[in-house]
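Late entry, evening session. Most of the bench is empty. Finally got around to the prediction I had been postponing all week. Sequence below, unchanged from the version circulated by S.P.
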Amino acid sequence: MPRMTAAKAMIETLAVNGVDTIFGVLGSTLFEPYNELFEHPHIRLITPRGEDGALHMADAYARVTGKEGVGMITVGAGAAYSVSAMGEAYAESIPVLNIVTQVPTPYLDQEKGIYHECRDQMGFFRPVTGWCHRITKPEEMAPAIDEAFKRMRSGRPRPVMLEVPADVLKMEADIVIPPAARGTKPLARAQDVARAADALAAAKSPLLWAGGGAVRSGAGTELAALAEMLGAPIFGTNGSRGLVSDDNPLMIDNIMTMSPIIEEEILNTSDVMLALGTRFSERATRSTNKKAALDVTGRSAKGWTIKIPQNMIHVDIDPAEFNHNVPAAQTVHADARDFLQKLIAELKARKYKMPEPRVERIAMIKDRAHAALRERVPIEMQLLADLRATLPRNGIVAAQSILGHWARYAMEMYEPGKFLFANTFGSMGYAFHAAIGAKIGCPERPVVALCGDGGFMFGCGEMATIAHYKLPIVLVIFNNGGFKILQNTQKKRFGRHVGTDMTNPDFMKLGDAFGFATARIDDLSQLAPAIAAGLKRDRATLIEVPIEFKPYR
């Protein structure tokens, strides 16, 4: 049994599990594992300028690669600074491991005033992780990391956090590194598949709904095949963009919440819905026809106002989601891809045939809905179409800002994991940080970040990370001088605004200072060519667009 320090066991166990990148911000309690990384042949260390940026990058790395993201963060303030990013990963079920140090064991939980001390540090993380664990001796390190990966690879992939006191990292023990962790997923039962097949085979107007869980399952090919077999439209969510290519005539995506045409002519006429890996979140279930009241915060309370077909089959890897937001006629605790494979086989065995042509009608409804959106916001839709034409099909878009919100509905995506958005937790600055993590995870793919000036300034120090690692990212900053989404709501409700105006730096000089190519675009017709030029460069490009867009709601 080899003898090694806990720090060495940490790095070796990460490597065995396929980790090739760690996003870490050094603190004095992290010297031991950093030293182990110094000459490690298989793991590279990326050093962002802030802990929230580090974990957002790990999150985006996981989304675009399909692997786990890993962060390594120091005790106290560093740990606290990473919590918001862990909240983003938790809200979207992204597998991220955050390894956080603690003060030395003799001083734990005593509030003696030791440097970086934090009372109940794991208490920060319990609400935003699927599992937290403190390692108290070197023998625990490898098993704890093994357990972390098992949890991220089993069931719903929530982020996890491991806490290790600084002195434990130096301790030695006889340690065996376990093989790569293997996860488990619930498989669909034959009776559940048969019951679902009964409902879909009898349906006159079937509908498919896919959430982020279907992406995590890798169910895109099977979902497209089932849609073609049934002639059924597919609704998506922010988290499932690109699961089935948007140029598939049956892929409606998430425009439904913006289109009464889709709601009235597809959703409200469907008699059977098969929902896969979705929680039916507030944003995904907003009716376009219902005039909603205001909730206690004064926001429009449109969530969960759409009409869900009475015969709804809900398939999810997390049974806690069943009947949580919407009622289901049938619930199936299973991995989405496994269920679809078995369902398709069952329908084929029954020699199912679509009773009447549906695809052409659905495609026409989809085209009408997009045409109505282009008529509603022609400038924004044309700009997104131009950007889509500029970006290769496998390009990655990280988005925030008003245009970023419109992109959620109208910018076509052709592969999963290529549209990065802070969907539910809503961390400001996410788009910029995510673009960096995406480029590190997929260096061969072009990456464009669509940022508002407000969100960008939350983490603009990470321009230094881009410069340090020479990442050829195209960064677009839509500069309207403030938090205009919020300001528009203030004006609508109160007739005035406060706290939403900003003073920004000269973005051209800021870009120059970091060695970026820079351009200021005053005519929107120049933006797509400027992005195209940026994609050809071997260094980062910053494009400022001083423009006011129409509010996205």
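Two things to note before I forget:
The mean pLDDT is 94.
The CA atoms of residues 343 and 349 lie 10 Å apart.
Will write this up properly tomorrow.
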